[in-house]
Design goal:
Blueprint: E1 6-9, H1 11-18, H2 24-35, E2 40-44, H3 45-60, H4 66-85, E3 89-92, H5 96-109, H6 113-125, E4 129-132, H7 135-143, E5 148-150, H8 155-165
Parallel strand pairs: 1-2, 1-4, 2-3, 4-5
Helix pairs in contact: 1-2, 1-3, 2-8, 3-4, 5-6
Length: 166
């Protein structure tokens, strides 16, 4: 992998790339900087299924149309493959040791397993920044010594950090 600094994305942050919501601007900036080879993005293989699941839920609830769902899935797949191919995205397999580390975080921070996996994997990648759209996940990540930002509440702060440090 390249020597660039990493930004780790959780599933809800990734979704903001494909559905305009609070926090979309910061996530778009991170993707733009990765496309320009200014930083490397990282997420867990676990996130792929979660992103598909979130987008499916949005479609089922009528928050996005079938054509917008299809477009979002296609864009996500294409962009993930393109960025991985040019080494600007690191998709981390769900290794057993990452699960074991995540399991320890669950009772410590009262997290859902998927959120604990995000923290464990972010630590593993040595990401300089974790972008999330989950307040509890951000708080737990910070308690674990990570630099984490909830883009829904702190989009402008995330943008400033991405512009200044990456």
């Amino acid at each position: 992998m390249n020597g660039l600094q990493k930004v780790y994305l959780d599933s809800n942050a990734i979704v903001k790339r494909y559905v305009k919501e609070r926090g979309t601007h910061a996530v778009n900036l991170a993707y733009s900087k990765a496309s320009l080879a200014d930083l490397t993005l990282a997420f867990s293989l676990w996130n792929v299924g979660e992103v598909i699941g979130v987008l499916d839920t949005y479609k089922q609830r009528g928050w996005i149309s079938q054509p917008n769902y299809d477009k979002a899935i296609t864009l996500f797949a294409n962009e993930t493959l393109r960025l991985a191919r040019i080494a600007m995205l690191q998709v981390i397999p769900l290794y057993g040791y990452l699960l074991v580390d995540a399991w320890k975080l669950i009772p410590r921070h009262h997290l859902y397993e998927a959120d604990a996996i995000q923290i464990s994997t972010s630590k593993h990648t040595e990401a300089r920044l974790l972008l999330t759209a989950d307040k509890r996940l951000a708080q737990a990540a910070i308690a674990e010594g990570l630099n984490a930002i909830n883009v829904e509440d702190e989009d402008e702060k995330a943008i400033r950090i991405l512009e200044k440090n990456f």
